[in-house]
C-alpha cells in the first residue's frame, strides 16, 4: 500500500487530538478499503441490496478489529431498521479511546448496481461527542470551497443571491459559475433558477458526499453545491470540509410528523436550525473514503485478470489540514477473520 501526503493549505482549525492517534489515520483507510472491495463484486449487477450488505458486513468486521470504544452516530439507520452498523451500535474491541463514528459503507448503492460514477465507502471519526447525531431525513445543503470570506453564502438567501455573491468574490459573471445538484424531481425549480442565471449545472445521479467535496477540488470546475440530500451524508461531507477548508450549511427538511419525532428522539429540538461546519463536526476529526467505482474524487476498485485488486483511497485530518492519497495493490480479497 503506497501513500502520498501533502498539506493542502494552512487551514488547521484544531489542535491534534491525543485520542485520534495518527495510527488511526491509516487504520481508517483499511476499513473503507475492506468495504469498497466487498461492494465491488456487485458493480453493474443490478442488485443494490447485495452490494450494500457486502459493504456493511466488511466494514463492521474491519471496525471490530480495532482497539477503540466506538459508537456509531451516523449509520445504516435506527436499530429496528438495520441489523448492523445501526445508530448507537458499539464497534471496536471496547478497549482504548472513545470515539464517534459516522459511516456510509456504500455511498451510492444505485450507482454501484448500475456501474455509474462516484460510488465510495466513506467514514469519519471524532472524539466522543464530536459528530452530530443527525436523523435519517433530508437536509438542505449549501457548500463552497476554501478561500472565501466567512458567510459569503447562506441558506437564508436565495440560490440567485448566493450565486451572485460567489461570482463577485471570484471576479466573474454569474453565468461562469458551475453548480452541482442531485438529479431529482424535487430540484426542478432550483435547476431552472440556476440555468436562468446562465449557470452550468452538473447533475449527479447519487453520491452527494462526493458532490460536496468536489467544490474543494479546482480540477472538477464545480464552484458550489446546492440542494437536498440525506442528513447523514451531510455530516460526512462536513467532516471532510473541516479537514480541507470550505464552507457548508445544512438545514433539516421534514416531510411528515414521523420524521420530526425521529429528530426529537435523538435530542434535536430546534427543527429550523441552520447547521454550519462546527455544528456538524467539532474538534479534531478524520475522514476517509475508498472509491468503489471511478469518480471525480477517487478511482474505483479494479479487479485485474491476474487476481490483483487495486484501490484508491483518501484520508484527511482536520488538525493538520493534510490529505493522504493511498493506493492499495493486493492479490485477492482480504481474508475473512
Question: Could you name the CATH topology of the largest domain?
Answer: Fructose-1,6-Bisphosphatase, Chain A, domain 1
Rg over alpha carbons: 19 Å
CATH architecture of the largest domain: 2-Layer Sandwich
The count of β-strands is: 15
Structural class: alpha+beta
The parts where pLDDT drops under 50 for at least 5 residues are: 4-13
The CATH homology group name of the largest domain: Fructose-1,6-Bisphosphatase, subunit A, domain 1
Give a brief description.
With 337 residues, this protein is of the alpha+beta class. Helix content is 28%, strand content 28%. It has 2 domains: 2-129 and 284-331, Fructose-1,6-Bisphosphatase, subunit A, domain 1 (Fructose-1,6-Bisphosphatase, Chain A, domain 1), CATH 3.30.540.10; 138-280, D-Maltodextrin-Binding Protein, domain 2.
Descriptive report:
- By secondary structure, the chain is of the alpha+beta class.
- It has helices spanning 23-40, 48-63, 109-114, 159-170, 188-196, 208-213, 231-244, 257-265, 277-280, and strands spanning 2-7, 69-74, 90-91, 98-107, 120-127, 138-144, 178-182, 200-204, 224-230, 247-253, 274-276, 285-291, 302-303, 308-317, 322-331.
- The strands form two sheets. Strands 1, 2, 3, 4, 5, 12, 13, 14 and 15 form a nine-stranded mixed sheet that branches. It has a six-stranded mixed sheet with strand order 8-7-9-6-10-11, sandwiched between helices.
- The chain has two domains: 2-129 and 284-331, Fructose-1,6-Bisphosphatase, subunit A, domain 1 (Fructose-1,6-Bisphosphatase, Chain A, domain 1, 2-Layer Sandwich); 138-280, 3-Layer(aba) Sandwich (D-Maltodextrin-Binding Protein, domain 2), CATH 3.40.190.90.
- The model is unreliable at 4-13 (pLDDT under 50).
- The chain is globular.
Amino acid at each position: 500500500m503506497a501513500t502520498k501526503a501533502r498539506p493542502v493549505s494552512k487551514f488547521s482549525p484544531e489542535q491534534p487530538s491525543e485520542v485520534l492517534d495518527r495510527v488511526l489515520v491509516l487504520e481508517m483507510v483499511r476499513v473503507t478499503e475492506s468495504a469498497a472491495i466487498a461492494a465491488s463484486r456487485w458493480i453493474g449487477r443490478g442488485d443494490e441490496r447485495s452490494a450494500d450488505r457486502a459493504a456493511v458486513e466488511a466494514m463492521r468486521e474491519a471496525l471490530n478489529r480495532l482497539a477503540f470504544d466506538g459508537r456509531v452516530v451516523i449509520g445504516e439507520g435506527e436499530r429496528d431498521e438495520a441489523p448492523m452498523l445501526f445508530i448507537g451500535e458499539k464497534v471496536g474491541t471496547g478497549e482504548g479511546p472513545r470515539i464517534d463514528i459516522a459511516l456510509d459503507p456504500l455511498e451510492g448503492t444505485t450507482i454501484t448496481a448500475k456501474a455509474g460514477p462516484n460510488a465510495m465507502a466513506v467514514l469519519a471519526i471524532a472524539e466522543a461527542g464530536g459528530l452530530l447525531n443527525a436523523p435519517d431525513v433530508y437536509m438542505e445543503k449549501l457548500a463552497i470551497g476554501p478561500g472565501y470570506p466567512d458567510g459569503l453564502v447562506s441558506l437564508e438567501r436565495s440560490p440567485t443571491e448566493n450565486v451572485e455573491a460567489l461570482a463577485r468574490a471570484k471576479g466573474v459573471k454569474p453565468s461562469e459559475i458551475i453548480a452541482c445538484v442531485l438529479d431529482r424531481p424535487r430540484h426542478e425549480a432550483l435547476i431552472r433558477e440556476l440555468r436562468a442565471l446562465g449557470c452550468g449545472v452538473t447533475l449527479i445521479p447519487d453520491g452527494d458526499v462526493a458532490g460536496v467535496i468536489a467544490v474543494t477540488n479546482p480540477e472538477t470546475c464545480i464552484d458550489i453545491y446546492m440542494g437536498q440530500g440525506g442528513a447523514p451524508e451531510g455530516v460526512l461531507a462536513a467532516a471532510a470540509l473541516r479537514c480541507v477548508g470550505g464552507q457548508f450549511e445544512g438545514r433539516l427538511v421534514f416531510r411528515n410528523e414521523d420524521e420530526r419525532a425521529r429528530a426529537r428522539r435523538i435530542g434535536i429540538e430546534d427543527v429550523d436550525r441552520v447547521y454550519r461546519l462546527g455544528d456538524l463536526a467539532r474538534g479534531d476529526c478524520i475522514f476517509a473514503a475508498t472509491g468503489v467505482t471511478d469518480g471525480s474524487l477517487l478511482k474505483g476498485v479494479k479487479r485485474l485478470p491476474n487476481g490483483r485488486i487495486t484501490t484508491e483511497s483518501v484520508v484527511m485530518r482536520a488538525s493538520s489540514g493534510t490529505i493522504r492519497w493511498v493506493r492499495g495493490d493486493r492479490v485477492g480479497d482480504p481474508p475473512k477473520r
